[in-house]
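Posted in: Structural Biology > Protein-Ligand Complexes

Title: Requesting predicted complex, magnesium ion in pocket

I'd be grateful if someone could produce the 3D structure tokens for the following input. Sequence and ligand are given below.
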Amino acid sequence: MQGTAMKNEKFLNATSIFRSQATTQTSSKSVRGESASPVKKNIKIKVESFNFYYGNTWALKNIQIAIKENNVVGIIGPSGCGKSTFLRCINRMNDIIKNTRAEGFIYIDGKNIYEKDQDVVTLRRDVGMVFQKSNPFPKSVFENVAYGLRINGVKDQRVIAQKVEKSLKDAAIWDEVKDRLSDSPFSLSGGQQQRLCIARALAIEPRILLLDEPASALDPIATSKVEELIHQLKKEYTIIIVTHNMQQAARVSDFSAFFMMGELIEYDATSKIFTNPSNKITEDYVTGRFG
Ligand SMILES: Nc1ncnc2c1ncn2[C@@H]1O[C@H](COP(=O)(O)OP(=O)(O)O)[C@@H](O)[C@H]1O
Ligand SMILES: [Mg+2]
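-- Reply #1 --
Done. Output follows.
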């Protein structure tokens, strides 16, 4: 009972985000005014008839979705519904897992990344990823961010230093670490480590950023910094963020995709998903009746 009540409270908070936007923000029109189906222009990622299997487990079922450039898409759904699997399909990280199979199409800028001639290293450079648990390398703060540049063949120390600084600034952590560049990243707070990992992902200038529950291990202040960062980053990147926190999805995303048991149940403007979803199952989930 109590759990349900708490979840309902979460939902009310999520919907109230839109109510307050409607009264206080004139610019909220850009979100609220989206048409029901994602429009065709500026499509960055298009997924068509996509299936994914771990052995006999059918983890993603006939997924269709189109994601616009410079949008933030929130992926929500109960544990085990395929959110992380979906994210990892977009930069073919699942290729590393044995006995898996992908079927169908994922187009990025019009090119199917599952075609045989796709270079996976290039793909992963273009599609950066940040995980739930921050995973800095056991190198200095500076070298964590420089790493991707070095493995991509950048040798000029001045260029590396400039890019490291820019990435740390873009990840909104420069001021906190500029005097600690040679320190171990493990001396940073959890929130700082996570932003460092975002800086590391940004350093190699991806086009798309995949974030898998990036704030789930963070305290509220660190979480709000990461959310603020996402708002800033969407000017330059297309972002897909998995979150189990519905208020977070409501706050940061333009569109939301609700997955359940490997299926994409509903995909629409976030305001619609949280206030007036088309599908009864979506409504049950966002109102906290299950999950
Ligand atoms: N490495 C793996 N090997 C086998 N099955 C997996 C693996 N990763 C995930 N799965 C299965 O795929 C389904 C979706 O998992 P996942 O994408 O991790 O869900 P979510 O991120 O929504 O919690 C689950 O049934 C899960 O058990
Ligand atoms: Mg997951």
